[in-house]
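Subject: Sanity check before I submit

Could someone independently write out the structure tokens for this chain? I want to compare against mine line by line before I put it in a report. The sequence has 239 residues.
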Amino acid sequence: MRLHKFISRAGVASRRKAEVMISEGRVTVNSEIIKNMGMTIDPEIDNVAVDGKPIGILPIKWVKVNKPKGFLTTAKDDRGRPVLYDLLPNDMRSLRYVGRLDYLTEGLLILTNDGDAANRLQHPRYGIEREYEVAVEQEVSEMVLERLRAGVVLEDGLARPSTVEIDHNKDNSLKNLRLVLKEGRNREVRRLMAAVGCSIAHLKRTRFGPIELGWLKVGHYEMLTPDEIEPLTNCSSLV
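---
Independent answer below. Compare away.
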């Protein structure tokens, strides 16, 4: 395993930061300072330390969280606002979120310390589906639905949901839509709905790839099962 990947898998830092640590001479392998970025080690044999502290690979974890509205998808906030990791125990603070949800959006977030799988799940080439429940304040005409299905040009390119339909299971004063997109662009659903003249009253992500939010309560988390994890580590099976 490459040394910088080992450091990342140990939960010490991202791969990029691990490379900086190596270049600064803060990493030793078998008590020898290493500055070779491409060095390969054997995790079963070699002893690695950062700033003199021995490190080891952490077991792979996958967690799903139902993020509440009013929480930031980040590790900390200079303004003291609630963040995603406030919902998790301390031993999960090194987990990385797979895609973001904005401050006002609630719903499904997946976290893991498997950096390679996380990168693949977010890469546009795999087109992993993200499903959203969208409640809007206006009546939605068939013309609006057709515009969404045809795709709308935003400032960063064409946005075209793969699924656009009325959610007939909802019974309240708002109009509810179900949208499925295959990209994770910043605030894509909000910008898409604004472009067709709809104001979002409530936005929730209910599915990411094969993982569904299900009955997980707002603000709660649960570990994924081995059967749920397997397809996440093999993105080609999701396409």
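---
OP: Matches mine. For the report I'm noting this point. The mean pLDDT is 91.
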